[in-house]
Structures are given as C-alpha cells and as structure tokens.
Design goal:
The structure holds three protein chains of three kinds.
Chain A: H1 3-7, H2 32-46, E1 53-57, H3 65-68, E2 72-75, H4 81-91, E3 96-102, H5 103-109, H6 111-120, E4 125-130, H7 165-172, E5 176-181, H8 185-196, E6 202-207, H9 211-217, H10 223-233, E7 234-236, E8 253-260, H11 266-278
Parallel strand pairs in A: 1-2, 1-3, 3-4, 4-6, 5-6, 7-8
Antiparallel strand pairs in A: 5-8
Helix pairs in contact in A: 2-8, 5-6, 6-7
Chain B: E1 11-16, H1 17-28, E2 30-35, H2 42-55, E3 58-61, H3 65-78, E4 81-86, H4 88-93, H5 95-104, E5 108-116, E6 122-126, H6 131-136, E7 145-147, H7 152-169, E8 172-178, H8 179-183, E9 185-190, E10 234-236, H9 250-265, H10 268-271, E11 274-277, E12 284-288, H11 291-305, E13 310-315, E14 317-319, H12 323-330, E15 335-339, H13 346-354, E16 359-363, H14 373-384
Parallel strand pairs in B: 2-3, 2-4, 4-5, 5-8, 7-8, 12-13, 12-15, 15-16
Antiparallel strand pairs in B: 1-9, 5-6, 7-14, 11-13
Chain C: E1 4-9, H1 18-22, E2 28-30, E3 42-44, H2 55-59, E4 65-69, E5 83-85, H3 88-93
Classes of the chains: A alpha/beta, B alpha/beta, C alpha+beta.
Chain lengths: 292, 385, 94
C-alpha cells in the first residue's frame, strides 16, 4: 500500500467505479470520463440511495459507461436504453433509473423511444453525451453533426441539418432540460444533482470532445483544444427558449437550464387515472407483485 | 409453488385462444406486459390491459415492437414476470431483442399469434410460418424454447408452462399460436390457484460480492437477482464472463455460446413435450402441431377407417426439437407425414432426425386457411402403399 | 502554505492536459517521466499553490488524479510530495 492511501482520501469517483476494469477504453482527451466524475459528485451530493440507482445505456462510446460504474447497470441494444429503462421503472417505481447514452444512440436509432418517453413524462434521468459523431464505429455522421464537417460517411462534408436536442426534447414533453459541456464540470454536477430530485423525464445534453475522430478529421486539434473552444464560445443563458440554442460548427454554444417545469410523471398519471376509474377495485402494482 | 389466486380466474369459461393465453399469463404470475397492436394478437394485450389493474399488474402500450420486446426485459430485471405479444411483422422487429434476452439469459415470454406472411401477408388469416424464425431469426447461435398450443385450453396451460420454463432455464420462451387457435372459442377450464404449479424465480442465496450473474450451476443455468437489491450487477449483450463483464475473446465466446447451447440442448429431454397416439405398430406417423394437429386428427381417423396403421406425433415443444424420439421411431415406421401451414419448416427438423431411415413427406400449405383433411389423407394413403 | 494536495495514479494517465490547463492556480505540468503506456503524467510544479479544490479530479477523464484539502494542522507545514500511486492493483487486474 502506497503512502497515498494512508495520507489522503480516495478519489470520490472511485467508490462508484469497477476499478478492476480501469483503465477504460476511452481515448485520451475524450470527455466521457469527465461526465462520470460529475455524475459521481452529483450522486454523493444528492445522497441518492445507491442500491436503488440503476444505470441503463445503449451502444456507443458513452454506452460503455454502464460497464464502468459499480451500480446495477445494463448495457442494452443500440437506441433502446429508454424502453428498457421504462420497463425497469414501471415494474419497480422505487428504482431511480438513469439512462446514460450518446447522441446517436438516443436521437437517431433511439429517437422514437426518446420522444415517446418524454411525451409520457416517464420518470427517467437521461444523460446524453453529445460528441456530434458516431465515435465507436469510426466517426460517422450523427443527427447532431453540424453542417460542413467531414465524417467517414460524409467524405465531402456534411449537408444534413443537425437536431437541436433541447428544442426537440422540450417539444416532446420533458420537464427538465439543460445543456452543459465537459468544461463546465461544476455546473454539470449541480445540474445532475438537480435532476435526481426532479420527478419526470429529465434530460441533460453534455457537449464532449471526440479527439480521435471528430476533432482530428476536421483539424480541430485534440481534446484540450475542444475544451478551450467550449470555454471561449459558451454563453450561459438560463431559461433561454430552446428554439434559440441550436449549435453549429464554430458558433456560440448556449448553455444552462432551459426547462424546469412540473408535470405529473407517467406513473402518477396512470395511478391517478386508474384510481379514479376503478376506485377500490384498482390494485396498484406494488413490490409484492415482483418475484421474491 | 401454487399460483397467486389474485391472477387466477378459476372456473369453466368459453374463451378464444388469445384470451386464454392472457389468463394463462396472469395465472403464471405475469404482472407486466408491454405490447403493440398487431392482428391477430392484439386481443391478448387488450384483455391484459383490462385485467392487470385489478390484480396488481401493469400494462403499457409502447410505440413499437422494438420497445415492447426490450421493456419486458427491463421489467424482468426489476423482478417482474413479463411478456409481450405479437404476430409476424412485429416478431421480425423483435429479433434483435430476442437475441439480447437469450444472451443475457433474461426470463420472459413472447406470444406469437402467427399469420400469413411474408411481409404484411394475411393479417387476419392463419399460418405456421414463423417456426424456423423463432429458432433462427435473431443473429448468432442462440437456443430458446418454443411451445405450440392446439386449443384455447392449451393456450392457457402452455402459457403457464412457458413462464415456468423461462424461470427454470433463464431463457426467453415462445408461445407459438396461429390465428385459428387464437381466434377459436372453446371451453377453457381454469383450476383453483392451488392446483396450478408455478415456477418461482430462481433467486440466489449468495451475498453481493459472491454472486455472479452468469455463473452456471450443474445444469448450466445461472441464478437470478433483481435490480435494486444491492448486487451491483452488470448485464450486457456483449460476449461476457461470469461476472457479466465484457470479454470479447475467442475463448470466452466459445465458453459462453456453448454454455447457452448446452443449457437447452443438454436439458432437452426434460424440456420436450409431445403427444403420441397409436405409435406402437404404426406404419405411418403424422408429425403435426398447432391447429394443423386438429385437422390431421380427422385425416388420421379417415385413414384408420381405410385400414392404415397410422399414428400421431404431436409436437408440443417445437424447440428444442424432440429429435431423439423421432429418430427412434424412424427405425420402426415406414413414413412420416408432416402437414404444416407453411412451405416446409418443421419438416426439415423431422428429416434431420429421420436421417433417411424412413420416408418423410411434407403436406405444405401456404397459409390463409387450415388444410383440408383430404389433402393430409391423400399423403398418408400414398406413403402407406 | 498549501491548503491542499493531489494524488495521481500514474498508470491511468493519458496526458490529455485537462488538469494542467484548468487548474486555477497552475499547480501542475506534464512531467518528463513516462508511464508504461508512454504518456507523460502530470506532476506538481507549484505545490504550495494547491488549494485542494479538486477541479483536476473533476476534469480528469481517466480518474488518474484528484485533489483534496489538507487537514487544518498541515497548513503552513511543508507540502507533501504529490502521492504517486503506481496503481499496481490496476496492473494486476489486467
């Protein structure tokens, strides 16, 4: 045992990591690990019951988060973390279900599930790491890739318009919508903490560098260059209308908490309605309905 | 253990197969269902939607079959017995998640009320054309269990059996109805709850830290836990080790996929269900399943009147395929006649088991109605000569 | 004079430079040493300026560094050498 363990407290993230699996697979300068630090700080600050916290991810670089956190974690299929999470949550509402996935997974193949879960206001905490690319598979165009950048499937440059994620998610019905970057670690941790005490479909978009593919192919430098870019080009505008927060290749990055509203979550609506309709005949699904 | 009486509609009922299957699920303890409307299966979840809130269950109609087929797996890992319901086109959409359930060894049930295909096909008319798909439709080598009811009563009984097999073998199980069995109305007797045997989930007694989600017992089956109990499990569709951690190496692939196979194939004799009728001394055996078995019975009776020694081998489990009893029969009989509502699917398994030791004759039907008994009789008479 | 210090897990570092760049008091710089992967891990070049704010820890995508406050009695004393764990456990596990 080195002197370190005797003299100093452990890294706050360590208790939430499957340390035997670290070092992880993410590239030098990738921001996903940074988001995990913010996540662990938020967990500690909000005193969430760790045994009831479940992380569900899809496929992609961000999807690998599930494999590194020492919590009940599920690495599901591409785009389908949200319906899996919905099944978990509806079968046992006592679980605190976090969906941790990437922009392509959540908004391309998973887009349909995302809008319906937001519409229903299913009580899920969705952390979307947006690196504007499909990184794991080698750097293909994503629905968030800005105009006029090169990707492996757009060798002559992109011309697909990109989604404005906060706008889409708000329109679909989410009750909490925020955007930060991996540079804004303190604000991000606070936002995640807020999200834990929010009931309903909550969404945080986190801009994060992909140095190996997005940055390198577009001669934008490395991860650190991206972080400096976020620092210099970000503007915090809490409550900004989400229609005005679209991103572009090198324009202003609007950050902040855009939406924070109260709506009954899906479970509440379901129970309330069935209670009204059925009265004493309604048997709410409780833990004894689960196998034991 | 006995069934939970709250989900058991004890009594003598007049139900169609779809409705009976729903009651079977409830009797088995299913308290979560996710579905998407598709003819001719929709009645199963429509009934569940009206029954679940009265018995402490939850139903959610999701946005598509992709969502439904994975939501039930989330519910399963939360601790619920869960199922979904579909037909051909929806079944095709569910394929990726069937592979996920097999790979993560998630107990759950899929009910497929088969209809004419391919593609949109015949939404309101029967076929038995998804039989190979249930075994081979998802990518990779995976092994599942599939049962085929021939009556609404069997829709009730076999759905309970499907849940029980799912819990015992930690595997997705398929109830393969067809549109006729699903929509025919017959007497269904639902016994008192204490007479219905329900397999409990095989939870581990190990403590967190000792338990590994994919550590197999002597039968090749790992124990289960549920999310929220402090086990900090990691479940992934990637090739993984006993701890569930991704390990994408050829030796791990070999070990894992072969165990998933032997979990079912090595236990096949315990899983097989089939009905044999007049097999001793038979010259011709009709191998049939689902609604076709009902039609074949008529053909068999007609053949017996003409003096043919004909027996019936009714598949109740289609997968794992009961090859051993068929192989043994092949040494003693002249021919097998295989009527099915498709252009030749389970007949391939029969041929494989028979291995040329007897004749195998397919009586195909592209779907849309049931066979005419005369067509099956014709095949029996031809091979009996 | 240092109110805090850092602990570095050398073998985890991928030399991304986040901690060096974003330390508010410029305590860190990449060293000339190598870890076994060939990366230059950071080291404290101005340890007395460390406040233990743990921004480095929050930034580090590789969980290779974190900052901590020193107990009050230690303030004003000679700052401890930045603890450099070789992360033998991580190496053994692989």
């Amino acid at each position: 045992m080195s002197d370190c363990q005797l003299a100093c407290p452990a890294n706050p993230s360590e208790q939430f990591l499957r340390s035997e699996r670290i070092p992880h697979i993410w590239c030098p300068g990738c921001g996903i690990g940074t988001t995990v630090n913010c996540f662990t700080r938020a967990l500690l600050e909000s005193k969430v019951d760790r045994s009831k916290l479940v992380v569900v991810s899809g496929i992609g670089c961000t999807g690998r988060v599930a494999g590194y956190v020492d919590l009940d974690s599920f690495h599901t299929t591409h785009g389908r973390a949200i319906p899996f999470a919905t099944g978990l949550k509806m079968a046992n509402p006592k679980l605190n279900v976090v969906v941790y996935s990437g922009d392509g997974d959540l908004f391309a193949i998973g887009g349909n599930h995302l809008i319906h879960a937001a519409r229903r206001n299913v009580d899920l905490k969705v952390i979307c790491v947006n690196n504007m690319i499909y990184a794991m598979t080698g750097g293909q165009t994503a629905p968030t890739t800005p105009d006029d950048v090169t990707t492996s499937t757009a060798p002559f440059g992109t011309y697909d318009p990109a989604f404005n994620l906060p706008y889409l998610v708000e329109a679909a019905g989410a009750c909490y919508v925020a955007r930060w970057t991996t540079y804004h670690v303190r604000q991000l941790a606070i936002s995640m903490k807020e999200m834990f005490s929010k009931k309903g479909f909550s969404f945080i978009e986190i801009l994060s560098p992909c140095p190996t593919l997005y940055q390198r192919r577009n001669k934008m430098g490395d991860g650190l260059d991206a972080m400096k870019f976020y620092k210099d080009h970000s503007k915090i505008k809490h409550g900004c209308p989400t229609s005005e927060v679209a991103l572009s290749k090198s324009g202003e990055i609007v950050l902040g908490k855009f939406v924070d509203r109260e709506r009954p979550d899906y479970q509440e609506m379901m129970n309330h309605h069935l209670q009204e309709e059925l009265g004493s005949r309604y048997v709410e699904m409780k833990e004894e309905a689960l196998c034991s | 253990m006995p069934a939970d009486p709250r989900g058991v509609l004890t009594g003598s009922h007049f139900l169609d197969g779809d409705h009976a299957a729903c009651e079977g699920a409830l009797a088995a303890g299913a308290r979560f269902a996710a579905g998407y409307p598709i003819t001719p299966s929709t009645e199963v979840v429509e009934r569940y939607a009206s029954r679940a809130p009265l018995v402490g269950g939850t139903f959610i109609q999701l946005e598509d079959e992709l969502a439904a087929s994975i939501a039930i797996q989330g519910a399963a890992w939360a601790g619920a017995k869960a199922f979904t319901v579909t037909s051909g086109p929806g079944f095709s959409l569910m394929m990726e998640h069937i592979g996920l359930a097999a790979m993560t060894e998630t107990p759950c049930v899929f009910i497929n009320v088969q209809r004419g295909g391919p593609s949109t096909g015949l939404p309101t008319l029967p076929a038995q054309a998804d039989m190979m798909q249930v075994k081979w439709g998802s990518h990779g080598d995976y092994y599942v269990i599939a049962v085929c009811p021939s009556s609404p009563q069997e829709c009730f009984d076999l759905t309970i059996k499907a849940f029980n097999l799912s819990e015992k073998y930690r595997v997705p199980v398929f109830v393969m109805l067809d549109e006729v069995v699903g929509h025919m109305t017959e007497k269904v007797v639902i016994p008192p709850a204490d007479q219905i045997e329900v397999e409990p989930r095989h939870f581990t007694a190990k403590k967190p830290g000792e338990y590994k989600p994919f550590e197999a017992d002597a039968l090749g089956i790992p124990e289960m836990v549920k999310a929220g109990d402090g086990y900090n499990i990691h479940i992934t569709g990637l090739t993984h080790d006993d701890r569930g951690y991704p390990n994408m190496s050829p030796p791990m692939q070999d070990k894992l996929v072969k165990r998933l196979r032997s979990k079912i194939i090595d236990n096949a004799e315990k899983i097989w269900m089939y009905e044999e009728q007049d097999i001793a001394g038979a010259e011709v055996v009709v191998v049939c399943y689902g609604i076709t078995a009902r039609v074949a019975q008529r053909a068999i009776d007609m053949a017996k009147e003409k003096g043919v020694k004909v027996g019936k081998f009714r598949l109740i489990t289609a997968w794992p395929f009961p090859d051993k009893p068929i192989r043994e029969l092949a040494a003693r009989v002249k021919a097998f006649v295989v009527p099915e509502l498709n252009l030749g699917q389970m007949v391939q398994e029969v041929e494989r088991a028979v291995a040329g030791k007897a004749k195998t004759v397919l009586v195909p039907h592209a779907g849309g109605s049931v066979h005419r008994p005369e067509d099956i009789l014709k095949a029996i008479m031809e091979v009996a000569r | 004079m240092a109110r805090g210090s850092v602990s570095i897990v050398v073998e985890r570092c991928k030399a991304c430079g986040f901690c060096v760049e974003f330390c508010p008091t410029k305590v860190l710089a990449l060293s000339s040493a190598f870890n076994s992967k060939g990366y230059h891990p950071p080291h404290m070049v101005a340890p007395d300026k460390c406040s233990g704010c743990d921004l480095c820890g929050m930034y580090c995508p590789d969980f290779a560094i974190h900052g901590y406050r020193l107990p009050k009695e230690a303030e004003g004393a000679e700052p401890p050498k930045a603890a450099q764990a070789e992360s033998k456990e991580a190496n053994d596990a692989r």
